[in-house]
Write a structure and sequence with these properties.
This protein has 342 residues and is of the alpha/beta class. The chain folds into 3 domains: 44 residues, 434 Repressor (Amino-terminal Domain) (Orthogonal Bundle), CATH 1.10.260; 139 residues, Response regulator (Rossmann fold); 131 residues, Rossmann fold (3-Layer(aba) Sandwich), CATH 3.40.50. Helix content is 46%, strand content 18%. The longest helix has 18 residues. The protein is elongated, with a radius of gyration of 25 Å.
Length: 342
C-alpha cells in the first residue's frame, strides 16, 4: 500500500495538516519539525499524489474529446469500452468526455470534428488519425495551443503527441503471414482484403505478411481488394472475387469489413472450399472460428488501447507527466477455436 500523509503524521506524532504544510513548504511549521517530517517521508517511501495536487489548482473539470472511426466497424466497440471504462475510473476527478464517431478514413470529416472540439475548449484529445497533411498540421496546431493528444490504434508521423497506443502493424502482418504459411503447409491461392493502400498502418500489415509469405513459393497472392473498412463494400467485393476467381482458397482480412466478407462466403455456400485469417475478436469472427471457416484471428487488445489512451492523456494534462515511451505497443494474441473468448 502507498504511504499516505496520515501514515507520516502518525509516525511523526503531529497532525496531517502539519505534514501537508511541511511537505509543501507552506510555512507555519518549526524548521526542525519540518526537516524531521521530510526525512520520515523519504525513509517511508512517500510519493506525492501529483494528480491530486494538480486538481487543487485546476479550476474546471478536465474535458477530453475523442474522434474515432467506429461507425460500421465493430472492432471499435471494444476500444470505446476501454475509453469509457478509463473515464469511469477517473470519475472522482470530474472528467468529462465528448465522443465524435465517424465512418471510415475521411480527412475532411476529421478536420471538421477537430475544429468543433477545439472550439468547445477541450483539454485533451484521443484520436484514430488519418495520415493526411492537413490533419497532421491541425493536430500540431492544437498541441501548440496547449491541448494534449494521444493517438489510439492508428499512428501518424511528425505529430508531437504524448503517445501512440496500439499494435505494431508490421509485426501483426508478419504474425499472420507465418500462421498462413504453416497452417496451409505452404500451398495457397490468397486474396488480401484491406481498407486502403493509402492508409499507412494497414498497408504495413499487408507488407508484414508479404515479407513472410515470400519464403513459401507455392503461396500465391492473387488479388488485393480495398474495402475501406466498409461491410457492404467488403460483401460485394468478396462476392465478385469468388465468382470470378475459382482458384482462391484463402482470404486474409487485414482490417475492418470482415463481417461483410464472411457473410458473402456464407451466402455463396463456399464455407467448405475456403479458409479465412482475420484480426480481432468481433462477433462474426468468433462465430466462424467455432464453425472452422476462420482458422485464426489475432487480437490486439482493443480495450487496453482505449483505456490506456485516456489514462495516458489524463496524466499528461493533470500532472504534466510525459510517457517514457512515445509508442506504447499492445500485445498480439493468436486466437483459434480452442482459446477464443466466447
Amino acid at each position: 500500500m502507498p504511504v499516505t500523509i496520515k501514515d507520516i503524521a502518525k509516525a511523526a506524532n503531529v497532525s496531517r495538516g502539519t505534514v501537508d504544510r511541511a511537505l509543501n513548504d507552506r510555512g507555519g511549521v518549526n524548521p526542525d519539525v519540518s526537516a524531521r517530517i521530510k526525512t520520515l517521508a523519504s525513509e517511508m517511501g512517500y510519493k506525492p499524489n501529483t494528480i491530486a495536487k494538480a486538481l487543487a489548482t485546476h479550476t474546471k473539470p478536465v474535458r477530453i474529446g475523442v474522434i474515432i472511426n467506429s461507425l460500421g466497424n465493430p472492432f471499435f466497440d471494444q476500444v470505446l469500452d476501454g475509453i469509457e471504462s478509463a473515464v469511469e475510473s477517473l470519475h472522482d476527478y470530474g472528467i468529462s468526455l465528448d465522443i465524435r464517431k465517424i465512418r471510415g478514413y475521411d480527412p475532411q470529416r476529421q478536420l471538421y470534428e477537430l475544429k468543433l472540439l477545439q472550439d468547445i475548449g477541450i483539454d485533451g484529445l484521443v484520436i484514430t488519425p488519418v495520415s493526411d497533411a492537413k490533419v497532421r498540421n491541425a493536430l500540431n496546431e492544437m498541441i501548440r495551443g496547449g491541448i494534449q493528444v494521444t493517438c489510439c490504434n492508428l499512428d501518424i508521423d511528425d505529430v508531437n503527441y504524448q503517445a501512440y497506443i496500439g499494435c505494431d502493424y508490421y509485426c501483426s502482418g508478419q504474425t499472420a503471414g507465418e500462421i498462413i504459411g504453416v497452417t496451409t503447409h505452404g500451398e495457397a491461392n490468397l486474396a488480401v482484403i484491406t481498407s486502403s493502400h493509402a492508409l499507412y498502418t494497414h498497408e504495413m500489415r499487408v507488407k508484414g505478411a508479404e515479407s513472410v509469405l515470400k519464403k513459401y513459393p507455392n503461396i500465391h497472392i492473387c488479388e488485393y481488394i480495398e474495402a475501406g473498412d466498409d461491410e457492404d463494400i467488403s460483401y460485394h467485393e468478396v462476392m465478385r472475387l469468388l465468382k470470378q476467381n475459382k482458384k482462391i482458397d484463402i482470404l486474409y482480412f487485414v482490417t475492418g469489413g470482415t463481417t461483410g466478407g464472411l457473410q458473402a462466403i456464407h451466402d455463396m455456400h463456399h464455407e467448405n472450399r475456403l479458409k479465412v485469417y482475420a484480426f480481432d475478436q468481433i462477433p462474426a469472427v468468433i462465430e466462424d472460428l467455432k464453425s472452422g471457416l476462420v482458422v485464426s484471428t489475432i487480437d490486439q487488445q482493443p480495450f487496453m488501447q482505449g483505456f490506456q489512451s485516456v489514462r495516458t492523456l489524463f496524466d499528461a494534462i493533470m500532472s504534466k507527466h510525459t510517457p517514457t515511451r512515445k509508442r506504447i505497443i499492445t500485445e498480439l494474441n493468436i486466437k483459434n477455436r480452442y482459446n477464443i473468448s466466447y
